[in-house]
Amino acid sequence: TLDDPERAQRIAGVATELLQARGYPEARIAITRVAACGTELHVAVHAGPHFTIARLQFQTNDTFAADELTLAVADALGAVNAVGGAYLEDRMKRALAALEHRYHDAGWIDATIGAPEATYDRIGGTVTVAIPIHAGTRYRIGRIVTHGGNAHDRAAIVEALGLYGGDWYNLSHVRLAMDRARQTIEHRVELRSEARDHGIIDLDARVK
Asked: Could you tell me which of 178, 180, 167 has the C-alpha nearest to residue 206?
């Protein structure tokens, strides 16, 4: 087999990632070459200590369901970034970016999620991951206004939307409501939203 340094390094990188995904965050693989009758590859594997997640600390006081937070960051069927599994920072950061969008969709439109902080217990072989979540105010629906079309069209849109002032703002629910409204009348319907002070979002449906 021809010696292909780049391919060998890629294989070592994949093997390192597999070890890390099995709870060896300090795993390293080094490849050295020795000229003999051809080239000999010497592979040194340093696995390092094994760690599993003991606790995920979501540092927040909002009402986002705790079990949904846990499921949102879990990966590889619970083998990664879940209690009892391995911790992988890069996958956690990707999951938290997606979770931040879910907060926005659920009405915490100003929510931000900070970088996860891992604390390792080398004696116990465990890691605790703290995740700071700054949810801010959860927004409610304020006024629902319709423009354009005739009175019948506007009344039909309001009924089809099925949204009411005071409801929690939820982008997924709003999108479903708009799908219903667009199927109710023959005209094109557009929806605009405007965030106001005190956690209120007004909805403005326009018939084109």
From this structure: 178
